[in-house]
Each structure stands twice: as structure tokens, then as C-alpha cells.
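Q: I have 244 residues here and want to know how they pack in 3D. Can you give me a structure?
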Amino acid sequence: MADRRWLSTQERNALFLAGQALVAEGEQPLDLNLQLAGEQIQLKAAEGYARRLEAEQAAAPLMIENTGTADAYVNLRLNGRTATEPTAHNRGLQVQRRFYDADGVAFADQQNLQLQSGQQVLVELFVEASANQPHGLVVDLLPAGLELENQNLNDAYSISDLSIDGVAVRDLSASAEVNHQEYRDDRYVAAVSLYEGRPVRLFYLARAVATGEFRIPPTFAEDMYRPEVRHQGPAAGQLTVSPR
């Protein structure tokens, strides 16, 4: 953990199994003294403790004293949201997003996307890796005003009917080694094998379904088994959907 901040799914599962093994050996009574936000709390049982804190209370020191004889293992989780957007970074992966209209023409202002209700938009994700990443995972969150056109549905408008600069989308994405795709309510997900020096182009269709102004989420990608290999894109601008 000296070189990374994230645990993989397998590592999380191993910790869960280790916890089960400890429980199977039999729990010993705890005797913990917590000093939190000017209060003292006594914990006697091996159970979780949760409470809501104001900002000033969360910033105050937390003291945990084990006054019993059994070893105590503490798992502290603090949930909240940051006042600023996540810092953009490219750690072995890079993703660039581009929006096109149904005719395959790129929108002039990619940071201030203007659509009408019901209008289709073609989204391209240009993905590069600095080394071979056979377990790449690209997760593209949708702004709230858009809805995915699920290509797995029989009545869906086929993305293969579209082209960019006279080249069919199916040909542009032919080199992409896509192992799995999901069309969720709020995001497009693709598990794709990535190779150094061989960028891939992923495409999906979306439709404007709600009028209003919406933030466009930043791009994101990671290696499924090595979460320290990841990409977090910068602020991506705003979407405005007007009535037709």
C-alpha cells in the first residue's frame, strides 16, 4: 500500500474472508474508550458504531483507547463529499471523450453541449494505455439529461448505421477488443483489453430526454485488478437540453 491508495476487488474479498475466519474463532468482549467531538463513548461489544458529525466535529481529534485485554482491530470509515471536483490524473491510462450529432459531425463546442429534447448524440471514447492492460475497465457516466440507447434491445437504433467523416463507426471501433459492455441507466461500461501503442475507439449512442442544464461528468477508467492504474478526467463542461 506504499505505492497506491486503492484495494482491488480480490484484495477486498480476501479481507472479508479473513474477517469471517476471525469471527469463526469466537469473538472476545471488547473494552474500548472513544473520545470523539468532546464526548467519551464506551464500547463493550464487537459491533459497529456510527454517528453523524458536523464539519467542526469531524475535524476534532479522535482518540481510541483499548482498556481491555483482547486485541482490537479498528476499521474507521468516513463518508462525505468533497467541496471540489476530483483531481485529474493519468496513471497508465488516458481517455478522451468527443460528442457527435447523428450525422457524425462533431459539436463545435465540446465543453458547452447544446441539444434539443429527443436529439441523438454519438459519444466517442478514445482510450490509450502506456502498457498492456488486458483488464481495462472504462466507465463513462452520463449527464442527467441523457439516456443510453441500449444496443442489446431489438428495437434500438443501430450504432452500426452511423459514420464519421464517411467511415462507418463499426470500422472505426473494429480494433477494440471489447470483452463486455453494459448499458446502464446512468453510465456506459466497457471491459476492454488495452495494449501499449494501440489506442482503441469506443462508441455509444445516447438521447436527450430531459430539458435543463446539467454537468457533464469527467471520464474515468481503471485496471480491474490493479486499481492504482487509473484515469480520472478533468471537468468536462455543461450540457444544455432545450425543448424541441
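Q: Anything worth noting?
A: The chain has a mean pLDDT of 87. The chain has two domains: 9-66, 89-242.
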